[in-house]
Amino acid sequence: MTARVLDTPHGPARAELHCAPEGRAGLLLGHGAGGGIDAADLVVATRAAVDVGVHVALVEQPYRVAGRRAPAPAKQLDAAWLAVAEDLGSTWFADLPLVFGGRSSGARVACRTASVGQAVAVLCLAFPVHPPGKPEKSRMPELDAVEVATLVVQGENDPFGRPETAHHRELVVLSGDHNLKADLDGLGRAVGEWLDRVLRPLG
C-alpha cells in the first residue's frame, strides 16, 4: 500500500493505492459523507478488485484530509475528485481504463463525474436514493445520468432507498442496511464478478 497527497482546487486530497500484480484497470473509490476510506465495504471492495487484477485508489476528499467531518458542497467534491482522477490517470493509472466508484456520498460523486472523467464503468455501494423518510428528495437523476456500465450494491433495509435496474445498470441487493456490513462476503463476490465481466472486453 502506498499513500500520496494530491493537489486539488479545494485543498490537498489523499489517495491510498492498492496494487494488483498486473493491473488491467484503475478503480477510484470515494468514501461516504461522514466516514472514511476504512469503511468495511470499501475495504472489501478493494480486496475484490485487486483479486481480479484491478489497481485501487481509495480517495480521501480534502475536507476529510483537513480534519473536518461536515462534507464540502457537491461542486467542490466533484472538482476535487476530477483533479485526483486526472492526476492518477496520468501517473499511477497511466494508459489504463478508469472505473469510478464509492459508497453513499462517494457513489454520488462518482456518478456525477463519470462522463467528464471518462470513466468506463461506475461502482455504487449503498447509493443514497433519497434522505431517510424523504422519498420526494430523490437523487435518482444522478444515477440515471450515468451512461456506462454501473453496479449498485444495496442493503435490503437501507433507509436511503433502493434504485431499480435499468439500461447499463445492475442491482445487487444484500441483507443489511446502509453500511453493507451484514454480507461482506456477498459484496466482495458481486464486485469482483462484475469488474471481471465489464472489463473483459477492454482487455
Automatic annotation (TrEMBL):
Family annotation (Gene3D superfamilies): alpha/beta hydrolase
Residues in KANL3/Tex30 alpha/beta hydrolase-like domain copies: 25-181
A UniProt-annotated Pfam family: Abhydrolase_11
Signal peptide location: none
Coiled coil: none
InterPro entries, per database record: AB_hydrolase_fold (IPR029058), KANL3/Tex30_Abhydrolase (IPR046879), NSL3/Tex30 (IPR026555)
The protein, known as: KANL3/Tex30 alpha/beta hydrolase-like domain-containing protein
Lineage: Bacteria, Bacillati, Actinomycetota, Actinomycetes, Pseudonocardiales
